[in-house]
Design goal:
Blueprint (H helix, E strand, L loop, with lengths): L8 H13 L5 H24 L3 H17 L5 H9 L3 H6 L14
Helix pairs in contact: 1-2, 3-4
Length: 107
């Protein structure tokens, strides 16, 4: 059982099954490790579902960069407003920009 602490989580269940097959651990120990691993995987899946998507991350990064760029030309309030909203003129000038940028926290 001590060796399982040194085994990567991605292969831990395979190792435990092998230990059970070769009678290195009991069925009760196997069930305990299996329950622990399944609960860890469920918690990781739940945390992943709550994290922002890659598209939201890119959008937030683009808005921060737009804000920093606009600071060269405008005061901070105007720069923030321009970074958080997309105008049709900017969208047509830059095809990579979204036509409607949703607001994020801080905007």
């Amino acid at each position: 059982m001590e060796t399982l602490f040194f085994v990567r989580r991605s292969v831990r269940l395979s190792v435990v099954r092998s230990f059970l097959r070769y009678n290195r651990i009991t069925r009760k120990q196997y069930d305990g490790v299996l329950a622990e691993e399944l609960s860890l995987r469920a918690a990781a899946a739940f945390a992943k579902a709550l994290s922002p998507t890659a598209a939201q991350d890119r959008l937030a990064k683009r808005q921060r960069l737009n804000y920093l760029h606009n600071l060269f030309f405008f005061d901070s309030a105007t720069a923030k407003t321009l970074a958080c909203t997309a105008s049709p003129v900017l969208s047509s000038s830059f095809p990579a920009a979204d036509t409607a940028m949703p607001e994020i926290s801080g905007c």
